[in-house]
Prior knowledge:
The chain has 12 helices and 5 strands. Helix content is 56%, strand content 11%. It is globular. α4 (88-97) crosses α6, α8 (176-186) packs across α11 and α8 runs antiparallel to α12. It has 249 residues and is α/β, with parallel strands linked by helices. Strands 2-1-3-4-5 form a 5-stranded parallel beta sheet, with helices on both faces.
Amino acid sequence: MKPIHVLLADDQALVRAGFAMMLSVEDEIEVVGQVANGAEAVDFAAEHPVDVILMDVQMPVLDGIRATERVVRAGTAKVIILTTFEREDYLFDAIRAGASGFLLKNADPDDLVAAVHAVACGHALLAPEVTIRVIERFARSLESEAGAGTGTEAAGTSPAAPATAEQQKLLDSLTSREREVLIQIAAGRSNAEIAREMFLAEATVKTHISNLLAKIQVRDRVQAVVFAYESGLILPGENPAESAARSSN
């Protein structure tokens, strides 16, 4: 089985050495390079086969967020953002940049290995409760923008910018059931919770999620949350029942 090629990007040599040591014991993971800043990470991924980059946030020359944007745009690797700070702005910016996961540097070795495997397989490395934090942050940003646009403070359910023609086209490609599942995802619910809420088998929920991600052209459920807000399927301050009712009209 082909090993997962991992690049370590951190400006601290001791941190890189520590991660390399933790990953080196895994037969299915191979550390193929170590770089000290985001620009070097972008260049390395462009020139060598890399599956996953463990990317620090605060680095010289080019920070991890901007480096992630360039790597994801080029399609050269998937990125797990690493930081010592459990900062909401890092989390949000990393997701908007296209990162597939977010991990604290003090994570257990087993969690680090599991993260690399998960992201390499195409999964998003964010638990439902972390997804909720993303939702709250994104909703607040939309509320702020709405308030700024009207010159008033946003209160309750805030208007959002209308979906673009492309976003509306993608939304229209979803079945009513897929829209409902997307709304549940945007509420931060796990597959098991969605299954209970919608009286479906969990395997059926997984199929709906796979189908809707392909249709709206996003990589994972976290990007799907962002799409749900940006397209207007979900409005800030709205609960899933309200969104579903408005969507069906």
